[in-house]
Every structure is written in structure tokens, then in C-alpha cells.
Amino acid sequence: MCGIVGYVGSKQALDVIVNGLRRLEYRGYDSAGVAIISDGALVVRKKAGKLANLETLIGSDPMPDSTTGIGHTRWATHGGPTDRNAHPHVSEDGRVAVIHNGIIENFAGLRAELTAAGVVLASETDTEVVAHLLAHSLPEADGDLAEAMRRTCRRLEGAFTLVCIDRTQPDLVVAARRNSPLVVGLGEGENFVASDVAAFVDHTRSALELGQDQVVAIRPDSVVVTDFAGEPVETRPFHVDWDTSAAEKGGYDLYMLKEIAEQPRAVADSLRGRISKDHRIQLDASEAEDAALRAVTKVVVIACGTAAHAGMVAKYAIEHWTRLPVEVELASEFRYRDPIVGPDTLVIAISQSGETMDTLMALRHAKAQGAKTLAICNTVGSTIPRESDAVLYTYAGPEISVASTKAFLTQIIAAYLVGLYLAQVRGSMFEDEIRGILEELDSMPSKVDLVLDTTEPVRALARELASSTSVLFLGRHVGFPVALEGALKLKELAYMHAEGFAAGELKHGPIALIEEGVPVIVIVPSPRGRSVLHDKIVSNIQEVRARGARVIAIAEEGDEVIAEFADHVIRIPAVPTLMQPLVATVPLQVFACEMATARGLDVDQPRNLAKSVTVE
Ligand code: F6R
Questions:
Q1: What's the confidence (pLDDT) of residue 221?
Q2: Which of 17, 20, 44, 408 is the most exposed place for a label (fewest CB within 10 A)?
Q3: In which order are the strands placed within the sheet that holds 3-8?
């Protein structure tokens, strides 16, 4: 949450920064602001609301030429989304401007200290204290901005990425990070810092990962990285393997539509190259020996939101294939309940961004208990995979729309591969069984394609139901997390009451919600799989229909029985039971997207949300 970008070079800093912010707006859009250095002065513009508001402001009040600057797009934590609280924040003497992503937990004490020293704070933010602390540290640091940043960081608690400029040093941008993302872009005669490579990929695909508690000083021709004590540190360069077009809308009206359409490719890419010549599954990086994985007695999946739903789907498969117990826990709950994990536990952290603070903190807690850790992640070089013993990357490509779509499908794929890997090293499945499942997985991109070719009925239904006040989703077995995911998509995009239930649980209370005409979307298990599941869901459909529900069944081709019981049937290809989430989720994504559009809402940037949630 919060997107930050800093630039130093020879181009117009304002253009580079505003373009970068456009790419980072998915991280927060409560306000936006920029600061540049011109003729020894700081020039700042900031505005509540989306980046477009800032652009209008700059249009009416132009900024001078400059080749050094910083910019910020905010997801509000401390202080409402107002002009006053928008970043950058400037020190009282007008010398330093700073932007921040994260939360400074000891800000109240620092604020009191500054107020006692006579500083008048201009905003309600935690960030502003940093601007004043930096300005106070500069004389003690003999004007060395990086040293002033290090001194300031040593006083801060919490999570932060900070970027600052000093009006007296026009060719310098200094940044620091603890627990929040920061990457450096390495150009020719220019350098960048940003929360995400998307901000500078137009200019360079050469980047540098910053580690925990590090400070970087960039000038047009140099990049110097130290730790908070000022000691030089080794950094890891990496190449960004996607280009600008991957992050553009590519002819679609919405990023979400583009990302839904990209799912067959994302699934295929996430499977590609995972199988060695001798048909063995391979992880991307692993310090966990196979012997250690053989000793595992329990698997715990930690994740949030959509990623947690992917984990819930994977539980069914991993337990079935490995006979290991799998627990799936919301990362935000995990470390606060004294979970039982130890050296024999494999903890799998699933995260698209690799920066979700709840997941990161849960991962660290698991590591501290001695657990083996494995990350499933879509963002190379992000913190969660970096801190895990083993990694399996999903190759979904950049996911810009705030509502997760292609990440979900690829997370299921990756978690299934982890399950099969465990089955392989533990010998809980025959090799030909594993190969059979890999073949099924290989056929999934074309099955998802088939779903995408036939979305019109579900779109028409979404438009028809756009004025509903509530939609319920029912599923059994792997269809249950799919129901939860369908409801989450609808809540976050259409701002509508939506809930997912295990279909069998309905009669224990939630059935009271059913009234005349309420839409109930049912994910129907394959009659060819465990047919008892199919029979049971038919009973559950009858229960809600008898009470007036309008039933929409998501059912496989060839399931003729269901037509008799449902008001509408949305067809999906017939696939094995454990593969069904990969096809059944897609119509639910389309449904939510279309319904939000019909309700006139901003699909790619729903209210109150941010793509990367870097606060707990
Ligand atoms: C929902 C959504 C969120 C994320 C969650 C975890 O559409 O996008 O629920 O899934 O915030 O994010 P990552 O996967 O980045 O850890």
C-alpha cells in the first residue's frame, strides 16, 4: 500500500514520476503528490483523491523544470485522505521532503517529542515526524543526507519505506526500507527508486533488490547501499523479465478484464519448466533438503484473502496426495494464537505481491519456531520469497487490477505442484499417478480458454441481477473455497452483500437469509467425481429453492440432472474434481466484474482497497 517513486537523472523528473505513479496507483489512491528540486528550492504539489486530481492541479499550477524528485500515491493509515495529509511532507525549514509507505509505530512518542521542542506539525500523519527528524539530523550528519536517514531510521519502529530529497543537494535521492518494499532501477546516467519495478520499467529493466534495514543513495551516476549502521552491504541485481506492455491494458477496457483473459497463459506459464527430463517436479529455489521434507508431519498454509482461498483449495489436494494433515490459516490470525509449529512443520506462505505484512509476519513467526518455510509468490525479489527456505514462483505476470484473478488460478497450480512434489519425495504416490495429474494440469489452459469463450450468459445474468442487494454462494468440497472467492470478488467490486457458504452448513443458520428472489450461485460438483457430493448439493439446492431462492448453477457440461433444479445453468467444461476450481472460478470473476460495471463502479480500483497490503 502506498506507491513511491524517486528519480535522479537528466530527464524531466515530473514526467518520469507521474508516469511511475500511474503504474503504482493500484497500491493506493487516496491522494497523490510530488516534490521536485528547482533552483535550490523544493516545489511540492499534492492533492486528495486519484492521481488525475494531482494532474489537474499541476495543469493549473505548473511546476518548473527539474531532474530530481519524488512522488507518492497514498493508501491512508494515519490521518484521513485529505490534501493536508497527502505526501510528500516537508520539514519546517523547507529543506527536506519525504514520502513513506508503511506505519511508524512509535510516531506518537516522536510527535510529542517534536511538539515539546516547538515544532508545529502540519498534518495528522506518522510520516511528517520523519521529515522533521531528518531536518534535525542533517547538521549532526554534516549535511550527509544518507547519514541523516540512517540516524532517523535508527529511531523508528514499525514498517517503512522512506524516500527523501534535500533542496540543497539537487542530484541526490535517498531511500530506506524496513519491512516494506523498495527496489532500485539502474539506468544510464539516471537512477530510480520505487516500491515496484512497474514504476520504472519504461526506462530500465535492470534492477537491484534492497535488503531489510538498508539505505540507498542514488545520484545520476552512482548507487550506494549501506545498512542502518552505515556499513556497505552486498546487493542483488536482477533483470525484470516483463516489459511495459505486460502492465498495459492491451486493448481491454479494464485491467481486470485483461487479467481474466490472461488466465490460460498464466496457468500454462506457471506449469512450464517445472518438470525435469526424468519427469520430476522442481522448485525454483530450495534450501530445504528432500530428507527434511520427508520428515514433515504437518503442512500449514498461511495467506490472506484470495490467496487464502487458493490455500483452502490446495488443502483438499495435498491431503489427498500426501496423506499429511494440512491446516489453512488466515495469516493475520496465525501468530497471535500461539500456533503449534516446529521443525517437522512445512509452512507454505502464499502471496501474489510477496509483501503482504500479515503473511510476512506469520512467516517470520513460523521460522522463529523452527518450521520449514516455502513461498508461493508472483513477485520475484519480494520479501516473502526472500525470507523463505524454498520458493515456487507463479508466472501470472503483473497483476494490476486490485481484485485478484489470474494470481488465484496460478496459486492453485503452484500449490498443487508443491503437493505433488511432497508426494514425490515422500513416495506417497506412484510416479504414473503423479504424471497423470500433471497431464490433467497441462490440459487446464485450454479448458479455461473454453470458459472464456462462453461468458456471455454469465454477463447477461450479472446485468439482470445488478440491482440485487445480496447474493449467496454455495459449494461443497473444493467448491466451498470457490464459493468464498466468488463472494469476495462481488463484495470488493460491486459493494454488495455477498457470502460464501459450505452448502451443507446452510441449514445450520444461514438458510434464514433466503427470501423470495435472492440469487444463490451454486458450484455444483461433478456427478462423475464423488457422486455423493453431487447428490447432496442437489438436496441443498432444493432446500433454498423451496424458500424462494433464484438458483444459478455453475455445472459441468453433460450434467443434465441439474437443469431440472436450477433457474439458470452456467456451463463449465467437465474436468476431474480437484481441477474444477480452475474452471469454476472464472465465471464468478466475470460475474463480479460485469455487475460492478453495470452498477457504474470503478472495477480496477474499488473503494477503500489497495493491491499490496503492507500494514498489519
Ligand atoms: C482479493 C485480493 C486480496 C489479496 C490479499 C493477499 O481480490 O486481491 O484478498 O488476495 O490481500 O494479497 P497477496 O496475495 O499479495 O498476499
A1: 97
A2: 44
A3: 41-48, 31-38, 68-74, 3-8, 191-194, 183-186, 206-209, 236-239
- Report the alpha-carbon distance of residue 564 to residue 173 in Å, rounded: 67
Same domain, 366 and 397: yes
pLDDT tens string 507-548: 898 899 999 999 999 999 999 877 899 999 999 999 999 999
Residue 572 dihedral angles phi and psi, to the nearest 5°: -125, 160
Nearest CA to ligand 1 atom 7: 403
Q: Is the CB of 540 under 6 A from ligand 1?
A: no
Q: Atom 8 (ligand 1): residue with closest C-alpha?
A: 404
Considering the domain boundaries, does residue 491 fall inside one?
yes
pLDDT confidence band for 241 (50 / 70 / 90): confident
- Over the stretch 249-270, which tens digit does the pLDDT of each residue have? 777 889 999 999 999 999 998 9
Q: Regarding beta strands 568-572 and 550-556, do their DSSP bridges make them parallel or antiparallel, or are they unpaired? A: parallel
Active site residue 2: yes
Query: Domain check: are 260 and 221 in the same one?
Result: no
Q: What is the pTM of this model?
A: 0.83
**Both 479 and 557 in a single domain?**
yes
> Is there a domain that residue 217 lies in?
yes
Specify if 604 maps to a domain.
no
Mean pLDDT of 100-108: 90
